[in-house]
């Protein structure tokens, strides 16, 4: 691949994470979860700590949500809400096993003085919503097909006052938008076209002609489940091919190992909610 000399500028972020001390695979609500596969809790906590330290070393602020016993998926903090311009659109989980997580997120945001909008439609927060602040004046990309209902996209638009572009996910392995698409800076994205319907692929190609296009190996390695500050892209260490593609266009890949959390069907992004003032 040809190396391009782009001047990428990082922007300091504020994140929310939730420690995996109660993480386990006790039920299977996505194709990646296998209740018979053992999880090493000590290693999970170690890998998660490393991820948190990586963000802090990159200069970001990381808040923590208190994990609750009996909510083994609470570590996937990105699913609890979607925050844009200081407003918080709360989650309403599809599966009852995760339903109680929504209240914990709401309590966090309300205790910190954020403007919280309670949802009446099923949606899984940043799992299915991404924000690209400088694309077309500030665009919300939203996934539906497996978890978040289409009606939640309209509700989010009313709650947050930004245009929402609905994208249909068609492959159950990529059941959340954030497995198949990520903002890599304030104006551009990386995505795996095969996760989307043909019409949604056309929409993405029209809106983001310069997007980085990921392949099968990238998405299967959970590479797109990343967080970026505009320069540094923190992503699963298994996604070496995607790291190379991003480096070739001027980003700085920061690989982290998250093998244990992949057993629950998530990686870097799922563990990190962005708090956007
Ligand atoms: C990248 N993804 C998919 C996320 N945003 N969240 C992971 C959620 C995993 C959880 N076991 C579940 O199935 O809900």
TrEMBL record:
EC number annotated for this UniProt entry: 3.5.3.18
Protein name stated in the entry: Dimethylargininase
GO molecular function per UniProt: dimethylargininase activity
Keywords: Hydrolase
Leading EC class: hydrolase
NCBIfam families tied to this protein: DiMArgaseDdahMtb
Native source organism of the sequence: Micromonospora azadirachtae
The keyword Hydrolase belongs to this UniProt entry's keyword annotation: yes
């Amino acid at each position: 691949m040809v190396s391009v000399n782009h001047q990428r500028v990082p922007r300091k972020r504020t994140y929310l994470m939730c420690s995996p001390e109660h993480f386990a695979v006790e039920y299977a609500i996505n194709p990646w979860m296998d209740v018979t596969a053992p999880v090493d809790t000590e290693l999970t906590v170690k890998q998660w700590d490393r991820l948190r330290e990586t963000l802090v070393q990159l200069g970001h602020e990381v808040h923590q949500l208190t994990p609750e016993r009996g909510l083994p998926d609470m570590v996937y903090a990105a699913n609890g809400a979607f925050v844009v311009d200081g407003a918080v659109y709360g989650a309403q989980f599809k599966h009852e096993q995760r339903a109680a997580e929504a209240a914990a997120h709401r309590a966090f945001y309300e205790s910190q003085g954020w403007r919280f909008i309670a949802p009446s439609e099923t949606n899984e927060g940043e799992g299915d919503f991404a924000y690209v602040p400088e694309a077309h004046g500030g665009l919300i990309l939203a996934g539906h097909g497996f978890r978040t209902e289409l009606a939640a996209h309209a509700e989010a638009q009313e709650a947050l006052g930004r245009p929402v572009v609905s994208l249909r996910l068609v492959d159950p392995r990529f059941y959340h938008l954030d497995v198949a698409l990520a903002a890599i800076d304030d104006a551009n994205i990386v995505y795996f076209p095969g996760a989307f319907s043909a019409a949604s692929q056309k929409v993405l190609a029209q809106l983001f002609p310069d997007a980085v296009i990921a392949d099968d190996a990238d998405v299967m390695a959970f590479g797109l489940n990343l967080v970026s500050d505009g320069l540094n892209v923190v992503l699963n260490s298994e996604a070496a091919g995607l790291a190379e593609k991003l480096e070739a266009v001027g980003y700085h890949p920061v690989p982290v190992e998250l093998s244990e959390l992949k057993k629950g069907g998530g990686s870097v992004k799922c563990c990190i909610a962005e708090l956007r003032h």
